[in-house]
Design a protein that fits this description.
Blueprint: H1 7-15, E1 21-22, H2 26-31, E2 38-39, H3 45-48
Parallel strand pairs: 1-2
């Protein structure tokens, strides 16, 4: 289940190698995002979950 995290928690997880999935739309992502974040808009996420690497930390 997805949950919101604080910027500090996200930064710490990202520093530890967690995959960051940005669920906003492409124009929002283009305006700014976490370096290395994978764009998967929320509306497409359920159909694309199999694209997420199984060997990466999930929170």
């Amino acid at each position: 289940m997805a949950r919101e995290v604080t910027p500090e928690t996200c930064a710490a997880a990202w520093a530890d190698g967690a995959l960051v999935v940005d669920v906003r739309e492409a124009d929002e992502y283009a305006a700014g995002h976490v370096p290395g974040a994978r764009l998967m808009s929320l509306r497409t996420l359920p159909a694309r979950c199999d694209e997420l690497p199984a060997d990466r930390q999930r929170r």
